[in-house]
C-alpha cells in the first residue's frame, strides 16, 4: 500500500482563493459546478502541473477562464484531474461533476438518507463532490448556491451567512450562502431536507447577536432544547475561559440519523449524529445528556481550535483534536464535578488508549506515516493528545499556559499550522526548552514508571526513586526517556500533606522526571509518609509502586487529592483481582481482601454527599483494566469470574448498607438531568448492581420494580442493564417490554441492542446474529452496527473472546460485509482486535486466524486493509 509520510510534506504548488459552488440536487444525478480562483503558490514548484484530487467522480466538463479544455489538455480518472500546463498566473477554473448521493453508502462526500442530503468532508470527502486540492493547507473563501426540489428540500443550508434565498422555478428553490472565513475543504458542509428548526439567540461578549439554530426531524422538536442550551453555554464558556468569541451571524447544528462518527465541526454548520443531539427525560439517560453536552462543546470549540487555526496536514490532526478534547474536558470540569470528570477521562483513556498503545495498532500522537488517514482518528490522537496538553499546563503552570494559548490564537489565526508552531508559543512565553517534551508527540507506547520508596527514620529523609521505561512499539524498537511531570504529595498519619523540602529548600509539588531514573530525597520528614504520586493523574503513565495495601487504604481515606483517593482504592482492588485470577487458574482458593469492603462501604455511607465521586469509588476496575494489568497470556473468562466473585463478596459483606443506600437514593420530584440529580441516580444504580450480583433474587426483584416503575430513561435502562445480567424470567420480560414500548424509536432500540450484545452470556452471539436479521437492524446505519456488532466486539470481553473463536469470526465476517459499502465503519469494528496478541495461546490463534481470513479476502478497502495489515504486524 501507498504510505503518506510526514517527511514528504511539500507546500501545494497551487492555491485556491475562492470557491463558488453551485450544487443542483438530484437523488441520483446531482450536478456540481465549481468555479475556483486558482494561482500558483510562490512556495510551490515552478511550472508544476495542476493535479486535483477526486474520489469516484465523473467529470462533465472543465474550463479555464471560460474556455473548455480539450481531452488532450487533461488527464482524468475518478481519482484525479491533472492539467499539465495551466496558466502561470491567476486563473479561473470551472469544473462540472455529476454525483449520485443515493448510491453513496460510505457516508463520505454528499449522501442522501431519509430524503435529506448531508455532506461529510473530513478528512478527504470533499474530493467526492468535486475535483479539488483536497488538503487542509489550501484555504479558500466559499460561496455556495444550493438548488433543490422545494417539497423535498425546503431547507437549504451551507457554511457562513445566508445571502439570498427564493424560488428557482419548476418547483425548485435555491439558497446562497457565503462564508467570509477562509477554510480548508474538509470544513465545507451542505445540508438539504425538510427539517424542523428550534432556535434561540446569543449575545457575544462584544454585543453581537448570533442566531443559534438546531435542526431535527419533524416531531422531535421537544428533544432539541438541551442541545440548544449546551451550545449557548459553550459559547459563553469559550469567551470567559479562552477569550474566544463566535464569528458568524448564525451557528447551526443539524442532527442526522446516518453518520459515521459522533459529529463534525463544519464552519458555522455542525453536523451531528442524532444520538448526540436528541434528549428528553423519557428517551435519554443521564449519560446521554452528559455526552450531548460534551460533544456539542467539543464541536463548538473547534471553531477556534481547528477552524480559525487549522492543521497544515493530517499528521497534525492532534493539533486540533487533542487541543479540542482538552478544552471540552475543561468545560465539563467547570460545568460538573472536576474530580469526577478526571476519573471518568482516565478510565476511558486506560480502556481505549492504553489498550491501543500496548498492541499492534500503537502509533505516536503525531504519526509519521499513514496508509489511510481515517484510521488515525484514534484514542491516541484524541485522548493522549489531550493528556499531552494537560501535562504541558502542569509543567509550565496555568499562567504561562494561558499566555501561550493567547499567543497561539494571535499569531496563527487564519493559518494552517504544525505542532511545532503550537509548542513554540509555549516555549516562548515560558522561556522553557520544550525539546524533550516533543517526545510525547513522537514516541508511541505508554511509559512505565516504577517507584521505590525508603524512609530513613534517623536522617528523617524519605527517598523516592522513579525509574521510567517506554516500551517498544511497532516501528519504534528503542525509546528515550520522556519528560514526565510527577505531581507529588507526602501524606502524614494525620492525613495532612507534609511540607516538601529538598536540599534545604521548599520543592514541588511538580517534579519533572527527565532521566531513566530520578531520585528525590525529601528532607525534614518526621514520620514515614504515604506517598501520593501522580496526583490528578499528572502524566499518562502506567505506575507501579512499592506502596503497601495499608498505604493505599490509608490514601483511599485520607489523601487530599480526590483523584488519588479514588486511584488508591482501585489499585487495591486491582491487586486483589489479579491475585484472584492467578488463584483461579492455579485451582487455589480465592484470596480475600476484607478491607476493600470498608473502602467501598464509605461510598454508600449516608455521610457521603458527593454521590458522583462515591459512584466512582464503588465501581470496580473493569475486566479490561485487569487484562491490561496482567498484560500477557490473558484469559478473559478467568478475569470475568474473578471480578464477579469479588463483586459478590462485596455485595454479601455490605448487604445492609447497600439496601439502605438504594432506598435512600430514590428520586424525588420530576426528572432533571442536572449533575447532582444524575450523581444520585448513579450511586443508586451502583447499589442496585451490587444487590443483584450473582442473580440475588432480592436484587433482581428490586431491579424489576425499578424497571416497571421507571419515569425516566436513566432508571429504566439501568434497571434493564442490571436485569440483563441475571438469567431470569424478569430479564426476558423486561427486554420484551422495552422492545414493545420503544420499537418505533431507533435510538432506543440501539440501547436495547447494546444491552443484549454486551451480556456476558453464552447465548449472546446467537442472539446478536438473530437480532441482525430483524427489521430493526439496518447494516447501512452505523449507529445500528455499532450498537449491536460494535458493542459485541468491543464491549463484551468474554463472548467476543469465546474460546471456540466464533466471536472473532463473527466480527470479522461483518467487517468483510461492510468493507464494500462503508469501509470506515468496517475498519472501526476491527478495532476489537487491538489487544489480540495479549491473549492466551488458544484464543490468540483463533483471533489471528480470523484476521488472516479478512486479510486474504479479495477487494479489501484501504481502510480495512490497513487495519488488518497493522493488526497482524
Ligand atoms: N473532526 C471530526 C472527526 C471526523 C469525522 C466526523 C464524522 C464523520 C467522519 C469523520 N472523520 C473525521 C469530529 C471531531 O473530532 O470533532
Ligand atoms: Zn474534534
UniProtKB/TrEMBL annotation:
A Pfam family reported for this protein in Swiss-Prot or TrEMBL: DUF3458
Domain Peptidase M1 membrane alanine aminopeptidase: 226-438
Domain (Peptidase M1 alanyl aminopeptidase C-terminal): residue spans on this chain: 549-872
Keywords: Aminopeptidase, Hydrolase, Metal-binding, Metalloprotease, Protease, Zinc
Catalytic function, reaction form: Release of an N-terminal amino acid, Xaa-|-Yaa- from a peptide, amide or arylamide. Xaa is preferably Ala, but may be most amino acids including Pro (slow action). When a terminal hydrophobic residue is followed by a prolyl residue, the two may be released as an intact Xaa-Pro dipeptide
UniProt enzyme class: hydrolase
Protein's recorded name: Aminopeptidase N
